[in-house]
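REQUEST ID: PR-0412
SUBMITTED BY: lab tech R.K.
PRIORITY: routine
TASK: structure prediction, single protein chain
INPUT:
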Amino acid sequence: MMAWYFWMALAALLVCALQFIVKLIRLVKRGAPKDLSTPKGKVSAGVLYSATVAMMPQNKESAYLHLPTYVAGILYHIGTFLSLLLFVWIFVAFAIGIYTPNDTIAIYPEYLRIGHIVAACILFVAAGSGISVLIKRLINKELRFFSSFDDYFSNFITTAMQLATAIFLLYPQTIIWYCVVMTLAFLWMPVGKTKHALYFFAARYHLGFFYGRRGVWPPAKIH
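STATUS: complete
OUTPUT:
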């Protein structure tokens, strides 16, 4: 049976999910963009381009000028999604008995150790990328000007989530701290900048709709 600290993290995940559902319902109620102009292109092609090729650094306004930061951001986001997926996996593993609690230690089969080490290494790299992005925000005058408490704290709690997950995978006796950090992360996610995990997809859809309908995306090939 799972201990109180894991149920605490699950409760926080439920609160997070409910808030995201409410935000999603609000987005859906607002409907698709209304455009009465004569279409010159396909919305579907524009949306697909918006969510794929348009995200490449050479197609963004200035990302190609900051490739190390762009790559760090990609790695950081990979670590975030991996942390969330691993939390679901850990819950399922406890529920079906693959992981078993022993006081404040999680016991898991030896055959999972290699997977844990690989996942932890990925998360350490991702967290390091997040820290590098934070340092750049702190030392760059222009970035500091546009930054707020939300920017700093969202980075902090997301990086802490990745590190806590990695450390738990290697040292299961840290399960209480892992659950505490995940609880804080889930409670902050729908409140802070981290809620762009939902709004990102809506924004890319709207951009794709706008530019796809006008025939701007995908861009015409020049021969």
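NOTES: Residues 129 and 135 are 10 Å apart (CA to CA).
REVIEWED BY: pending
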